[in-house]
Specification:
Elements (H helix, E strand, L loop, with lengths): L1 H4 L8 E6 L6 H6 L2 H9 L1 H9 L6 H15 L9 H27 L4 E6 L45 H17 L24 E5 L3 E5 L3 H10 L4
C-alpha cells in the first residue's frame, strides 16, 4: 500500500473491476442457520470485525460496528428479510470498498489510464445458485470468467446459437483490444455497442457497465462507499 501511496508502481494501462453481486451468497449461509443469525446479531460488535475484516475491540471498531449494523441491518434481528442488506455488507467488505480505494488511488497517481468496469450480465449459469434450484444467485464472484474461458468442469461450451455467445464475443473483444493496444475500445464498433470506454480519474469515477448492453456510468454503489469512507477513512 505504501508503494501505491508513494506512486512507486509500474505506469501501465490498467483494467480493473468487479461483479455486481460479489460474495453476497455468504449471507445465505448465515440466514439459513438460525443460531448463527442470532449469534451474529446479538454479538455483532464481536463478530463483525472478524466477518468483515477490520480491527476489533477499539473505540473505532465499536463505532464502525454500530454504523454497519444500522445501515445494513437497520438494527433489526437477522432474518430472511435481512438477506439483501447482509449480502451487501459482505460484498462491500470483501470486494467493493477495497476495489474502490485501489482504483481511485492508482488513477490519481498513474500517468496511464485506468479502465474500471462493473459486470452485471446475468446468464443462465453461475458459480452460486439458489438452494435446490438451477437459478443463479446473482452475478457473483468469478461469473465474468464464464465468458472469458471455457471452464469445462462446471459449464458447457457455448455455441453460436446460445444466448451467452454474444457476451462471450463482447468480453473477449474488450480484453483482446486492451491486451493489444492498452485501450479496450480503441475504436467504436457495433459488437461493442459503439461505446467508448472512458478512463477513470479520482474526480470522475467513470466505469463501464457490462450487461446485455455496454454503457458508461459513474460512481459504483455510491451510498455504500460513502458510508465506508466515513467509517474507515482512506489513510
Amino acid at each position: 500500500m505504501k508503494s501505491l501511496l508513494d506512486g512507486k508502481f509500474m505506469n501501465i494501462p490498467w483494467m480493473t473491476g468487479m461483479n455486481k453481486d460479489e460474495f453476497i451468497y455468504r449471507a445465505l449461509n448465515v440466514i439459513s442457520n438460525s443460531s448463527w443469525a442470532e449469534d451474529m446479531y446479538e454479538r455483532f460488535d464481536e463478530v463483525s470485525p472478524i466477518a468483515f475484516m477490520y480491527e476489533k475491540e477499539t473505540n473505532k471498531s465499536y463505532g464502525a460496528s454500530h454504523g454497519l449494523k444500522e445501515f445494513y441491518l437497520h438494527n433489526e434481528p437477522i432474518t430472511l428479510h435481512s438477506l439483501t442488506g447482509l449480502g451487501n455488507l459482505y460484498s462491500d467488505a470483501i470486494i467493493r470498498y477495497g476495489q474502490h480505494l485501489t482504483s481511485k488511488l492508482v488513477s490519481s497517481r498513474s500517468k496511464e489510464p485506468v479502465f474500471s468496469y462493473l459486470f452485471e450480465y446475468q446468464g443462465r449459469y453461475s458459480h452460486a445458485y439458489w438452494p435446490r434450484t438451477q437459478n443463479p444467485y446473482g452475478v457473483v464472484h468469478h461469473d465474468d470468467l464464464i465468458y472469458l474461458f471455457y471452464i469445462s468442469t462446471l459449464f458447457p461450451e457455448f455455441k453460436a446459437q446460445d444466448p451467452e455467445s454474444q457476451m462471450v464475443e463482447k468480453l473477449t473483444q474488450l480484453w483482446a483490444n486492451f491486451v493489444q493496444t492498452g485501450n479496450p475500445t480503441p475504436e467504436k464498433s457495433e459488437l461493442l455497442d459503439n461505446v467508448t470506454w472512458e478512463r477513470m480519474t479520482a474526480e470522475n469515477l467513470a466505469y463501464l457497465s457490462i450487461g446485455h448492453e455496454l454503457k458508461m456510468d459513474k460512481g459504483m454503489f455510491e451510498d455504500h462507499i460513502a458510508l465506508w469512507e466515513q467509517l474507515f477513512p482512506p489513510q
